[in-house]
Amino acid sequence: MNTSRLVSSVSIRSVTHIDVLSEVERIIHDQVMEASQKVELIDELLRKRKVSSQVLLEDQQRLNNLKLVNQRISDREDYYQALEKGSLRLQIRVSDLIKVLAFDFGTSQKQLLDAIDYFQKKFGNIQQHNSVPIDFLSLEEKQRVITPDGKIRISLYKVLLFREMRDHIRAGALNVRSSYLYRSFEEYMIPKLQWVKDKDFLLKRASLSHLQKPAPILLKLNEELNFQFRLVNQHIGNGQRTSRYMLMQKGNGICTGTNLTKMKLRIHRTYTHKPGLCRCWKF
User: Fold this and answer.
1) What number of other Cβ atoms are within 10 A of residue 250's Cβ?
2) 39-66 residue pLDDT tens
3) Mean pLDDT of successive 10-residue segments in the chain (283 residues)?
4) How far apart are alpha carbons 158 and 138 in whole angstroms?
5) What is the pLDDT of residues 64-87, one digit of tens each?
6) How far lies 6's CA from each of 17, 70, 73, 150, 219, in Å?
7) What CA–CA distance (Å, rounded) separates 19 from 40?
8) pLDDT tens digit sequence for 159-177
9) Quick one: pLDDT at residue 280?
10) N or C: which end of the chain has fewer CB within 10 A?
11) What is the pLDDT of residue 23?
């Protein structure tokens, strides 16, 4: 169970316990009701509100889990302090760059884009304000960035923002329009209208005119692939261990594959001076 769900569960159950105890206290102090009636009402109340020794033990375990989560968060404070300490040096290096980068708002993650847009509009001068976007942060990071009195640790916020930008750019979740390497995948493709209009010319320029009609080529490749599948299955069925049926490229060397035994395919030969390039695959 993640931290937010754990906190919610403990909070809901604590309200239930308080309500039940309040009602039990009211029943006990009732001066008119007989003792047997009080016992029956309390028993019915516990059954209806699902309060039992087993449930209380489960709630205690939830509290213990929450303590462990908070302990882990507390133990990592030195890590966030180190990030905060090195933030200024990082800001000097990247803040001016981030202010002028143009990001693709159509293909990038919205929560992170909101934070970047806020940073750019403020020219990097983030102030203490409720409008500072923090949705891109994890729950633990939010707890670190926002102090107990509700203030933002600006230096820590910036270094976490820069880190998220780095990770998302590398993962392709944040696309930079002013970059050649980190654009969205669609921008590297030939526009559809241009492809329809200049298809013959583009294929000729790439020396791929022979692929203009792909159906016969795909059919031939499919037949060759099916033939190899049948051949491999025959070798496996016949128990043949040294029938060469795989050829693959690795680095600058060529590896040949054989010997399928006990669901292990071993590459046993390589035409290279680096035998370590060959690997073993397990199925």
Assistant:
1) 15
2) 888 888 888 877 777 777 777 777 777 7
3) 62 76 86 86 81 73 71 68 89 90 82 91 83 89 87 92 91 80 74 88 88 87 89 76 48 46 42 42 39
4) 14
5) 777 666 665 556 777 888 899 899
6) 17, 11, 15, 22, 56
7) 18
8) 999 999 999 888 888 888 8
9) 42
10) C
11) 85
Q: N- to C-terminal Cα distance for the chain?
A: 33
Q: Tell me what pLDDT residue 161 has.
A: 94
Q: Report the distance separating Cα 24 and Cα 156, nearest Å.
A: 49
Spatial separation of the C-alpha atoms in residues 124 and 279, rounded to whole Å: 49
Contact at 8 Å (CB) between 177 and 104? Answer: yes
